[in-house]
Design goal:
TetR/AcrR family transcriptional regulator, mainly alpha, Homeodomain-like_sf
Length: 222
């Protein structure tokens, strides 16, 4: 344990003590004693005991914002999906810490409130991005809010199933959930493919030249 970075030692010590004694019964001094560091080291890493539970929240917000900022209207739904996937992968990579956090937020009201506030921050980022992508007008404000809420709900649904042991492949579950979510909103301005069906008694080779001329640069036939 002494070879680990101080922040990691503090996090592991805190979660272990929360499990052993309970969140409210564990003090900052208890955590620093278990981690083998001083109080000043603790407060350089965390602002409060509560912050130990959500140590990477601000980092994840920045990662989401950066992923969304790197997209354009043609790749907007991909950006929303991949930005949400960043959070899922982070929690899955945490393993036992994510499971311990889940147990704590279910049993400590203050931590549950903090978790909900954090979720709203994620949702606000998605809402602002989707609203800009849809044009930023009053007529799209509600649709953007609904889509952002659906994205966060889909992510949380998959994460909870993984935390409860109801899925062993959260990536596949996430892909399916996000596909359903994006489909709810239909065409949102990205490039789409048009399929034209027709019936003719003529040979296809006789029809193709006319179709190519009609489509011009807007489509290809092979």
């Amino acid at each position: 344990m002494p070879d680990k970075p101080a922040k990691q030692r503090l996090t592991e010590a805190a979660f272990a003590l929360f499990e052993e004694r309970g969140y409210d019964q564990t003090t900052v001094d208890d955590i620093t004693d278990r981690a083998g560091v001083g109080r000043s080291t603790f407060f350089r890493a965390f602002r409060s005991k509560e912050d130990v539970i959500f140590p990477d929240h601000e980092v994840l917000l920045s990662a989401i914002e950066a992923r969304l900022a790197g997209s354009d209207p043609r790749t907007a739904t991909v950006a929303v999906t991949e930005a949400s996937r960043l959070v899922l992968r982070h929690y899955v990579a945490e393993g036992d810490l994510a499971l311990a956090r889940y147990r704590l937020t279910r049993s400590v009201p203050a931590l549950r409130a903090r978790e909900i506030a954090g979720t709203r921050q994620y949702q606000r980022l998605f809402q602002e991005f989707v609203h800009r992508w849809m044009g930023g007008g009053e007529e799209t404000a509600l649709r953007a809010e609904l889509m952002a809420a659906a994205v966060v709900t889909a992510h949380n649904h998959v994460l909870r199933r993984w935390l409860r042991g109801q899925t062993t492949d959260p990536e596949a579950a996430f892909d399916a959930a996000m596909a359903d979510t994006v489909a709810l909103f239909g065409n949102t301005g990205e490039t789409e493919t048009t399929v034209v069906a027709f019936r003719t008694g003529k040979d296809l080779s006789a029809v193709l030249p006319g179709l190519r001329k009609l489509l011009g640069d807007e489509g290809t036939l092979s």
